[in-house]
Structures are given as C-alpha cells and as structure tokens.
Design a protein that fits this description.
Layout (H helix, E strand, L loop, with lengths): L4 E7 L3 H19 L4 E5 L3 H7 L5 H9 L2 E6 L14 H11 L4 E7 L12 H4 L3 E7 L7 E9 L2 E7 L4 H16 L4 E6 L5 H17 L4 E6 H10 L6 E4 L1 H14 L9 E6 L5 E5 L18 H13 L4 H16 L18 H14 L2
The protein binds nicotinamide-adenine-dinucleotide (NAD), 3-isopropylmalic acid (IPM) and manganese (II) ion (MN).
Length: about 375
C-alpha cells in the first residue's frame, strides 16, 4: 500500500515558522513509528500572491482535492492589506474550505493543567476544561449572496447575507451529534433565533436531527450572545457546541483564551468521505499569521503541532499516535517550557519556536 499523502501549505508570517516544527514531527513518525507520509509543499495566501498573483493557484487547489489531508499554517499580513478583496490572502483559505466542501470545523479548547494559571480566567473555571466547538465552515454570512459594496442613492452600502439551507444545517448537526457520542454526549446549539430567520431554521433543523436520529444525546439551545457569556462564566458546562460560521469564528477565538493562548488552539476542517473512506480534510491552527511577532522565532508551534495530532486521529485512524503527541505536548508544558505568549508575571524565560519543537521531539523519544 502506498503511503498516505499530505500537502503542506505553510502560508505567511509565522505559518512557515510553526510548520517547520510540524515537519520535524512528521519526520519523527516516519523514522520512529514506521508511519511515513508522502509530503508535498505548495504556496497559499500572500506567498502564493507574490509568486502567481493569486492567493491560491488552480494547480494547488487541484492537488488539495487529491491528497489525503492538507496541513495549513496561516495566511495574511499587513503587506497585503491594500490588495483588492478578490486576491487577498484570506481568499485562498476560504476557497480551499469552500471547494473542498469542508463543512464541519472542529475547534477543541482544552486547558492543559500546567497552563490553568495562565488563562485570564480563574484556575477553577478552566482547569480540566475540554470542550469542542463545531463551526459550520462553508456557508452562512461568509458566502451568502447577495454580497458586495453597492451604490445606493448618493452613498455606498456594504452587503453580506446570512443564508443557510436545511441540508447545510442538517449535516453539520449530525457531525456534532456523532462527536458528542464519543465524548460527553452533550450538544449545545447556538444561534440567534430571537432575531434571525436563519437562526429559527437552524434551531428547528438541529432539534429535528436530534429527535429523529440522536435522541440519546442531550441537546440544549442557547442564543449565541448568551453563549459567549456562559463560555466565560462557566465553560465546563459545555461538551460540544455547534454553531454557524460567523458565531463559530468569534466563539472559538474567545475559547482560545480559556486555554491560555491563541497559540494553543488546533483545528480540523472535515468534509464528506472520499473514495478511500477518509474524509476530505484540512488541518490548521486557529490563530493567524501574527505579523507582530513574525520572523522573530517567538511563535508558539503547539497549535500547529496539535493540528497534526488531529490529522493523525481524524484522517489516519492513528488515535494512539495522536494521544502520544498530545501527551508529549502536555509533558513539556508540565516541565515548565513556555513560548513568549505563555509567559505571565512569573519571570520564566521564554523558549524559541525551535526550542519548543526540540523539547516535544525529545518527549516523543521518551514515550517509546
Ligand atoms: P493573529 O491570530 O494572527 O494574532 C492575534 C494575536 O495573537 C497577536 O498578538 C499574535 O502575536 C498572537 N498569536 C497568534 N498566534 C500565535 C502563536 N502561535 N504564538 C504566539 N502568539 C500568537 O490574528 P490577527 O492579528 O487578527 O490577524 C493577523 C493576520 O492573520 C490577518 O491578516 C488575518 O486575516 C490573518 N488570519 C489568518 C488566519 C488563518 O490563516 N487561519 C486566522 C486568523 C487571522
Ligand atoms: C479563522 C480565520 C479566518 C476566518 C479568516 C482568516 C478567513 O479568522 O480561521 O478563524 O474568518 O474564518
Ligand atoms: Mn478566526
């Protein structure tokens, strides 16, 4: 059997810096666990724009459709702020998500014990936290038509459209219920059914999917604004949260701070199964290209490394190896290693991106 294939799109800013550490870990699995991937690399975002005048070349898009999984670093940066909207770096990422039809975006927020004092919330509130936000990723206001900036009388109007079909809600709800069954068996669905018709439909469809096919899973509904408040007040009340594209974007950044840093949060974006049974998949950290620290060796590579752990689990059925990698991360944090984003007032000296990679590789060696 041929090796599973990975396409690496490191992107911009700290993307290539954190991805460098992931490449070392992929190499480790080949050398030490006989788990070898056929790795190819290409450009996305500003890097692709610089080379080709587009944030995602058609050849790269075609390659992404063929591989077993895509690993993405981050896209964007101030250098590209003035570009036309249609060629902005972020459009490359949105095209990948849309054309691969990656409708279910898994964003876990887990608080490692060693970081419980680093969260901006009290230790009690976050210690032991393990929640999963399932964000719908291919529809909603990110993609709805009409959209644009139009002339209306003698002024301009900016238009975006929140739009969800029943089938789009149905499929993401199912993915949330399936996940819940493997975890705490609880789903909280968030929308704004009090003010939006799309929210009313969302609530109805999620409830119907539940009643027909997942009555064993505990389901609750919450308005997304109240959900944001509850996420800060007592996040451990949640197991799986399922929500739309925009609310999921906001709620997952908020959830990141429960874990201590945006540099800690991985994600998996999954679509329908391919012919080989694996889901279409893209794995990326939740954070962006962090222009403020790019090129300084300060970036925390853990979100990107944990995204690769998710690839091991969700694309390659290597749950035990994913556990091994997550345990290695947990161990270096317990040993007190911190990148700059995880330094509080305690005077600990931060380590560099590469040093964090070194320590995780050493912990992987120790696990054998
Ligand atoms: P950001 O996530 O890049 O940075 C927010 C803050 O978090 C910054 O202070 C940054 O230094 C810090 N941070 C983020 N990741 C870190 C890490 N791994 N280690 C240490 N610190 C980290 O968000 P932003 O500043 O709003 O956006 C910058 C650019 O990234 C924009 O162009 C935006 O569109 C893009 N972006 C891309 C993605 C993506 O590629 N998936 C996600 C979010 C933002
Ligand atoms: C994310 C990012 C993206 C989003 C941007 C970069 C398109 O913020 O992955 O959370 O808004 O989805
Ligand atoms: Mn975001």
């Amino acid at each position: 059997m041929s090796n599973p294939s990975l396409l690496i799109l490191a992107g911009d800013g700290i993307g290539p810096e954190v991805m460098e550490q992931v490449k070392r870990i992929i190499g480790w699995y080949g050398a030490k666990r006989d788990l070898t991937f056929d790795v190819s690399e290409d450009l996305v975002g500003g890097a692709a724009y610089d080379a080709h005048g587009t944030p995602l070349h058609d050849d790269t898009m075609a390659r992404a459709q063929e591989v077993d999984a895509v690993l993405l670093g981050a896209v964007g940066g101030p250098k590209y702020d003035a570009l036309d909207f249609s060629v902005k770096p972020e459009r490359g990422l949105l095209r990948l998500r849309k054309e691969m039809d990656l409708f279910s975006n898994l964003r876990p927020a887990q608080c490692f014990d060693a970081l419980a004092d680093f969260s901006s919330l009290k230790r009690d509130v976050v210690a032991g936290l393990d929640i999963m936000i399932v964000r719908e990723l291919t529809s909603g206001i990110y993609f709805g038509e009409p959209r644009g900036i139009f002339k209306e009388g003698n002024e301009r109007v900016g238009v975006n459209t929140q739009r969800y079909t029943e089938s789009e809600i149905d499929r993401v709800a199912r993915s949330a219920f399936e996940l819940a069954r493997k975890r705490g068996n609880k789903v909280c669905s968030m929308e704004k059914a009090n003010v939006m018709e799309s929210g009313i439909l969302w609530r109805e469809v999620v409830q119907k999917v539940h009643d027909e096919d997942y009555p064993d899973v505990e389901l609750s509904h919450m308005y997304a604004d109240a959900g944001a408040m509850q996420l800060c007040r007592w996040p451990k009340q949640f197991d799986v949260i399922v929500t739309d594209n925009l609310f999921g974007d906001l709620l997952s950044d908020a959830a990141a701070m429960l874990t201590g840093s945006l540099g800690m949060l991985p994600s998996a974006s999954l679509g329908a199964p391919m012919a080989n049974g694996r889901p279409k998949a893209l794995y990326e950290p939740v954070h962006g290209s962090a222009p403020d620290i790019a090129g300084q060796g300060k970036a925390n590579p853990i979100a990107c490394i944990l995204s690769f752990a998710m690839a091991l689990r969700y694309s390659f059925s290597q749950g035990a190896e994913a556990d091994r990698l997550e345990a290695a991360v947990e161990k270096v944090l317990a040993d007190g290693l911190r990148t700059a984003d995880l330094i509080g007032e305690d005077g600990v000296q931060p380590v560099s991106t590469t040093q964090m990679g070194d320590a995780i590789l050493a912990a992987l060696d120790d696990s054998l």
